[in-house]
Amino acid sequence: MARKIPLYQLILLALAVTAWGAPKARRAAQPPTVQSAAEAALAKARGQVLNAHPLAMFYYSDDSLGMASLQAHADAMTLIAPQCYGLDRMGTLHGQLPSDVLDATRRAGLPLMPLVTNPGFDRSTAHALLHNAHAQRRAITSLAQIAERDQYVGWQLDFEGIDPADKFAYTRFVARVAARLHHDHRLLSVAVVPRFSDAFPDSSTPGFHTGEWGAAFDFRGLGRAADFLVLMAYDQHTSLTPPGPVASYGWVDAALDYASRRVSPSKLLLGVPLYGREWVETSHGTTAHSIAYKDLKDYLEDPASDRYWDVLFRTTRFQLREGDTLRTAWFDDARSLGEKLKLVQTYYLRGYAAWRLGMEDPEFWQPEGQ
Hints:
Blueprint: H1 7-11, H2 37-50, E1 55-60, H3 64-73, E2 79-87, E3 93-95, H4 99-108, E4 115-117, H5 123-130, H6 133-150, E5 154-158, H7 167-183, E6 187-192, H8 219-225, E7 228-232, H9 249-260, E8 268-273, E9 276-282, E10 285-291, H10 297-301, E11 306-310, E12 315-322, E13 325-331, H11 334-346, E14 351-355
């Protein structure tokens, strides 16, 4: 029987190669320089990231399931992005990378690109920082120093909840961070929320609309400054909406269509969800929360559970009634993720970024069809 290829290896077949430029005019011989161990490690990490086609980034939040996935499947990953740092309104960098993550990634030879957020995605924090040049200088200096100390290949800025009026202030801040990191031969990526038009508010025509959460991102400007952007193509449906997929295929496709017309696809990573969401409807109302694959246990084991593949959304829906309670879950399992990852090749993207390790369907790592 022919060997079946794992899903993530199928994605890795979409390769692109770079060409060497012509040699430059020969210059007078210079005395040899000795590259330090830190410089050599940084150069290697940069090469791993920049030469990966596709680039497979995985987000990490400190928990046992995430660590287990990291240790078991490191060979399927290019880059690890732990969520563990935040900038306050005065530009002070808070946070620390857990030592076990640092040890695990070093043993696996995986570069690190930690996330930096405005804690709690607080709008006032972002606004204060974006309009305080002194605070920005403090922030940029700290980012540079911590990256050098802990040998990070770079950082990812994940500022959300930004006031749309601060769109250009955020782009300017990103450019300043990029300039310093590039001076140090490090990388910068930026997480962006999907947009579907340049206008905000959108017109009332049918289709998907740019919300306030996405209106603060200038894709063109951010794409020029950063090494790559991660399009966070998830949370189409939330606790504030009726039940529905975290990221339906058509919604993701439309988000990519907008992004790829404004940013070079070689600078775009498709953000995919390794998680799902469950809605619980009772006579008292409806609540919703995010779920990991392990939380589907009741749906998978109860014979009364209804499992349905939605052909339009290309996502799996589960439903289970328990007395007067109706539970509905939409989950991006291996099949759904496979459909979305095909878009990486369709749009000639740099790669993908998956949120987050430990929540995924185990079949994501297995040979296709098993």
